């Protein structure tokens, strides 16, 4: 990939760490938005710089146009304009439709969806002025499938998905590609989405036909591809990275180990 400036909206998360490693190895310059102290990034800075990547750690409020603009102005000066925006903000808290608190709903919508809108607007304008760029939203299969545990999370991911579609239509006219990665279940998803009303995550590993859960490394590889020129015709795509999890329809056909260690056929 030609040298690019990549903005990672949540550098502190597990997905953020995998993205940093992959894009750093690929020679990109990185803008890492973080809530951690700068000293927490010392080891990352050393490893990225050893790989030839320049890094700017920022602490922007992603729901403030003013603060986003200030951060982008600083980045322009130090690294250059953003070529790739990766929005990977994902707050998940249990909340039910019948008894959920407004504050929890508002928190997740702001962290996941509102931040996506503000980032797209602020960075998209600058990309449009240059006539190029790639925007990648790290979303979830729960943009289309209820969790049974957190309706607000599903609602926020559905909002991100439709924002991406609208942005692909508008920004695509300016040479910008906008795509969505819908993450399937990772290790621990049965705890995250523990539910009394849904069995979706019961034996969830074996509902993936290959019985391997997706990892943040898988995500980073796909994001790296979407950021590069080899994916130049992809715009407005929803790419489901779930190993076929949502295709599961009958528990008796799960690829689950039987007694003796063999799998059901």
Would you write up a description of this structure?
The chain is 38% helix and 14% strand. The mean pLDDT is 94. Strands 3-2-1-4-5-6-7 form a seven-stranded parallel sheet, sandwiched between helices. With 265 residues, the protein is of the alpha/beta class. It is built from seven helices and seven strands.
Features:
265 residues; alpha/beta
Question: Helix amount, in percent?
Answer: 25-40%
Number of E-state strands: 7
Rg measurement, Å: 19 Å
Mean pLDDT: 94
Spatial order of strands in the largest sheet: 3-2-1-4-5-6-7
How are helices and strands ordered from N to C?
EHEHEHEHEHEHHE
Major beta-sheet overview: 7 strands, parallel
Helix- and strand-based class?
Answer: alpha/beta
What distance separates the N and C termini? 42 Å
> How large is the share of residues in beta strands?
5-15%
Which residues sit in consecutive blocks of at least 5 with pLDDT less than 50? none
Tell me, what's the shape? globular
What's the total helix number? Answer: 7
């Amino acid at each position: 990939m030609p040298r690019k400036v990549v903005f990672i909206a949540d550098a502190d998360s597990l997905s953020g760490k995998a993205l940093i490693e992959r894009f750093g190895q690929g020679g990109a310059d990185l803008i890492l938005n973080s809530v951690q102290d700068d000293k927490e990034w010392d080891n990352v800075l050393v490893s990225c710089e050893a790989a030839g990547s320049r890094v700017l750690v920022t602490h922007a409020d992603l729901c403030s146009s003013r603060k986003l603009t200030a951060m982008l102005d600083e980045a322009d000066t130090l690294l250059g304009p953003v070529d790739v925006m990766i929005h990977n903000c994902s707050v998940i808290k249990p909340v039910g439709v019948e008894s959920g608190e407004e504050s929890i709903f508002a928190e997740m919508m702001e962290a996941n969806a509102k931040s996506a809108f503000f980032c797209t607007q602020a960075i998209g304008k600058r990309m449009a002025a240059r006539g190029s760029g790639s925007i990648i939203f790290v979303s979830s299969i729960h943009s289309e499938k209820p969790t049974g545990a957190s309706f607000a999370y599903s609602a926020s991911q559905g909002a991100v998905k439709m924002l991406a579609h609208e942005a692909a239509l508008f920004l695509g006219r300016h040479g910008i590609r906008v795509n969505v990665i819908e993450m399937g279940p990772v290790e621990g998803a049965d705890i995250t989405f523990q539910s009394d009303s849904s069995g979706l995550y019961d034996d969830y590993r074996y509902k993936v036909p290959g019985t391997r859960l997706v990892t943040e490394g898988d995500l980073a590889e796909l994001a790296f591809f979407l950021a590069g020129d080899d994916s130049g015709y992809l715009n407005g795509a929803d790419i489901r990275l779930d190993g076929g999890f949502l295709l599961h329809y009958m528990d008796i056909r799960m690829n689950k180990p039987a007694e003796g260690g063999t799998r059901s056929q």
